[in-house]
Amino acid sequence: MRRRDLFRYSLLGLAAPILPPPARASLPGAKITRIRFFRVSDSRPIFNQSGHIVTVETDAGITGIGEGGSPDTVEQLAGLLIGESPFRTEHLWQLMYRGYFYPPGREKIHALGALDLALWDIKGKALDVPIWHLLGGLTREHVECYSTGFPSAGSLRETARACIEAGFRAFRTGGSGSGGQEPYRHRQAVDETFAMCREIREGVGEDGDWAIDYHTRFDLPDAVRLSSLLEPLRPIFCEDLVRSENPEVYRTLRPMVKVPIAVGEHFGDRWDANVLIENQLIDYSRVSIPNCGGITEFMKLAALCETHYVGLIPHFTGPVSEAALVHCCAALPGPVIMEMTGKDAKVHPHLPVHYDFRNGKMWPNSRPGLGVEFDASRAQLEFEVTERSQPIRLLERPDGSITNW
After folding, report:
1. CB 150 within 8 A of CB 343
2. CB-based contact 93:293 (threshold 8 Å)
């Protein structure tokens, strides 16, 4: 049976016939030989939200594609991977996370995530299966999306209605002041945002949903007042109510508001968010890929969220990462909504194939690995790493697992 036939069975919720495993469904004894960093022109200028491309090459002729990081952070981590088996994804994640003794900051975790994506891409390509298959198979036919920056269709009310009619689960707004006018007057912005949100609620209708990003711009009293005003309008979530540096503030804030709270766009690995999740101080996690450290870490974060009934609404980062999120979210059982910027999938010259988006939804596909194709001729090669570098020795337990130096 061909792979696309198995995919059709899974989408229909039918049990596929049991077949002997194909001869090629085994991992070759490959080693990582070269890692390259490519600068792309349409990457976001924000340092820790880059969309630059990282490729990991093996002596088995399989190349993995990742996205994110900066030249210095990627180069340092890449030196740890040369000569290693690309299939030991958890081991290599620990090696990169702990290989320089001090825990990496969020910018370096972004680079770690880029390399982790490429490693998972290699594994899927080696087994000739999509990554969602390696994560447990499909739990849903598609992944619902909400739109950020949906193109204007006239008034705010008409734009919100057009977003829902385009197939999106929800319309998302940034509220008053999202255009960056100066000076920013918090109390006035609360009243203006409330008026905007009433118009949005009317536009999406009773059956539609809407959401708002406070963008951490409000002081706590203003965030509380806006949340109280918005409660009757039933937002699906309110995001980043206050500044993100001190997650413990939500112990104070949570009892003061009743709107669903979403937090995590600024965060990295699960240790950034575990206090909020384990104490159920938020309703949705916005932690994303590659920001958290890639697929390896995102699935752990998702399990932590499921345990505490916290949903997933990961932040949109770049096209390769968005493709990876589809694989993860399509294999998870809990509530998931993905972010999509605008109305349609963007054209990325260096990525002739990336994620599958239509009718306001992300769709899993059956292409091997991440299902992404990279045209290196449309990007600028910044550097490559071919020699191993591990300046700090790690210790191993008697069973060979890593412990800190």
Report:
1. yes
2. yes
